[in-house]
Amino acid sequence: MIVARNICRASMALCFALLLVLATQVNTKANAAQGRQAKFASLASKSGGHLNLDAALYNEITMAPRNYSVTTLMTALASQFGCEPCQKFQPEYEALARGWAKKRDNSHFFATLDFTKGKEIFKQMSLQHAPALLYFPPTTGPRASSDPSPITYDFNRAGFEAEDLAAWLTKDQDFPIEYVKPFAWWTFLTFATGICSAGALVVFVAPKMGGLISGTKLVWELVTLGTVIVMCSGYMWNHIRGAPYNGIGSGGRIEYFAGGFQNQFVAETHIVSSIYALLAFSMIALIIFVPNQRDPVRQRAGVYVWSVVFLGTFSLLFAIFRTKNPSYPFRLFL
Question: Peptide bond preceding 142: is omega within 30 degrees of 0, i.e. cis?
């Protein structure tokens, strides 16, 4: 009995010691996480809310446990890489970081790791393109996530604007963040200049143009044709869906045409509308301008030139449709 009692006491003492060691380790890790949070909060306050990382700082800020979340932008800003999306998104990202820094909330950090400072991290993560944005959720605290692995931000789907990232964090990651875009003084001045110019046209030019507008169909034909071209090119789709201007392909290349017939970029609308405009003008030239030529040689040359323009442009349009969907069945020359 005495031996059994001693064994029981020894077991209880051992369990207590193990629990004490475990509690000490948990407390140590919690203190370490708080220490890292304080460190990065200090660095963020000195850099305007945006952290420029190297490989060591990246490993440290993404280390678990984390009582904070962090978005890390993997980019390549050096001129030799020619990464236009990186150059485009960087100021938007830093603007969002500055806006967040004004709240002095250390529950989230905005960081950037450039390829020149973290080649081993890019290689470790098998990143073949830039930019790439990773969201690391907290592993402890009220916002703790059961899955500590990073979540990738889809630029092609969400967009390259600061408000796009803020909306994604708020909606998809349940992390409320507000972003107020700085007042666009240049846009305001341009708009004000346009209003003044329009007012001057109404006051000084419109009375003299009234007879021309009411007496000819040309102005209304051009306005109507331009509206049809713009709308058929997908302007309303872009406006309703909030499509990004362009996308990123393999190797970080900028893409102007989105794959599939259910997606498109704003740049695609501009290109296709220009093609439609050229097609319309070439058809008008063949119907109106060429027949009015009195010189047979010029008339024949006009038929050849505008026919080539029309057919070549149509061939280019078919080729663009095939880039969006390889199963598109039609082609002309290209």
Answer: no
Cβ–Cβ under 8 Å, residues 136 and 111: no
User: Which residues, at least 6 apart from 169, have a Cβ–Cβ distance to it below 8 Å?
Assistant: 71, 135, 175, 177
The rounded mean pLDDT for the chain is 78
The alpha-helical segments, DSSP class H, found in the chain are 2-46, 55-61, 84-101, 119-124, 155-158, 162-171, 185-200, 206-215, 218-232, 235-241, 266-284, 296-324
Residue 146's SS3 state is coil
Angle at 246 between CA 150 and CA 169, to 5 degrees: 30
Residue 210: is its pLDDT beyond 60? no
Beta bridge partners of 75: 114
Q: What is the pLDDT of residues 253-282, one digit of tens each?
A: 777 887 777 778 888 888 888 888 888 888
Distance CA 288, CA 228 (A): 20
Q: Are 73 and 96 in contact (CB under 8 A)?
A: no
**Percent residues over pLDDT 90 in the chain:** 7
Report the C-alpha gap between 28 and 146 in whole angstroms.
21
Closest CA to 158 of 143, 150, 170, 168: 168
Calculate ∠ Cα 63-64-70, nearest 5°.
65
CA-closest candidate to residue 243, choices 226, 227, 221, 265:
265
Instruction: Return all residues near 130 (Cβ < 8 A) that are at least 6 apart.
Output: 74, 75, 76, 81, 83, 85, 86, 115, 252
The Cα 62–Cα 57 span in angstroms is 8
For helices 84-101 and 162-171, give the axis angle rounded to 10 degrees. 60
Q: What is the pLDDT of residue 143?
A: 78
In this structure, what is the dihedral angle of CA atoms 278, 246, 87, 180, given to the nearest 10 degrees?
110
Per-residue pLDDT band for 29 (boundaries 50, 70, 90) equals: very low
Q: Is the peptide bond before 91 cis (omega within 30 degrees of 0)?
A: no
Q: What's the token pair of residue 283?
A: 């058809």
